[in-house]
Design goal:
The chain has two helices and six strands; from the N terminus they run αββββββα. The strands form two sheets. The protein has a four-stranded antiparallel β-sheet, with helices on one face. It has a two-stranded antiparallel sheet with strand order 5-6. The chain is rod-shaped. The mean pLDDT is about 80. Strand 5 and strand 6 form a beta hairpin. It starts with 11 loop residues before the first helix and ends in a 13-residue tail after the last helix. It is α+β, with helices and mostly antiparallel strands.
Length: about 120
């Protein structure tokens, strides 16, 4: 029978090499994690259903082209949380573009929207 070779005690060099290698792998994993997460398919948000209605005597249309009140475009922005806000009222968010359009009609009163869409430049 042969005796198993005695395990050599860990030297300082071996311990540091192992720790350095582990740190390199951990750093590479941390750097690649956002890239690998971005490759996953994202959940797509379903667009709001196409809607037309008359609200307080104003014609509201919500479709793929955007939101229009009496045929004039309403500047609508989507927030990161999925809600909407408009150029009429930047201080309040709404769950759907239709709710946003109704609130814009309330805010406008008898005034009309401008024909030109505001442009952030």
């Amino acid at each position: 029978m042969y005796a198993a070779p005695a395990a050599a005690p860990l030297s300082r060099r071996t311990l540091l090499r192992t720790a350095f290698t582990a740190a390199v792998f951990a750093g590479a994993a941390a750097a690649l994690a956002p890239v690998l997460r971005a490759r996953r398919p994202r959940q797509t948000l379903t667009p709001a259903p196409l809607t037309e209605e008359t609200y307080r005597g104003r014609h509201i249309a919500v479709d793929a082209a955007g939101v229009r009140i009496d045929g004039r475009p309403l500047h609508v922005m989507r927030r990161a949380d999925g809600s909407y806000l408009s150029g009429i009222n930047h201080f309040q968010s709404f769950e759907t573009p239709l709710e946003l359009a109704r609130a814009a009609v309330d805010e406008l009163g008898t005034n009309q929207l401008a024909l030109a869409v505001p442009h952030h430049g």
